[in-house]
Amino acid sequence: MAEKEGPQSREGGCGHHCPGQTDSTRRRFLKRLVGILTAPLVALLGWPLVQSVVGTMYRLPKATFTKVGSMSSFPQGEPVSPLFEMPRQTEYLHGKTTQDVWVIKHSDTEVTVFSPICPHLGCHYNWYSQAHKFICPCHGSVFSLDGKLLGGPAPRGLDTLPHKIEKGDLYVKWELFRVGIPQKIRIG
Ligand code: FES
To answer: Ligand 1, atom 4: nearest CA belongs to which residue?
Structure first.
């Protein structure tokens, strides 16, 4: 007697019209379609982020000199922290930011400029005229007038910034350096 053929009798499933197979084919097709439709959107939104990360790592922005102030406005021998505006251009921001630096004028033609960022972990430090020292409020690093590390956890002295004096005005190149390491490595 011939055996009755049924869904269970075929090895490996139910052939071309198996409902399960049709569902999974449809699911695969939909997944691919969603992938195709969303890929350009993801690329569009993600590109600025990728650019900014890669840009920071491999393509440092070209620092340009920005005017900080007139040399005649700085007292001689006493650190001052003038504010100045500098153009800022990133993937997301086109405009100006207010920045500060530490300026120590030695004469009308000689000056030292320090980044205001503590090389330990990036806090802003202050000048204490009575103690005649720069002291960071965050973890107590202490620096001399010429930027040497006198104590505390900072791994190096203060970071100097490139500068020039033109027609009696001080111009500074704003640069950022990696904190927490003994070497002065520019990161921005
Ligand atoms: S951030 Fe200045 S001492 Fe830690």
So the answer is: 139
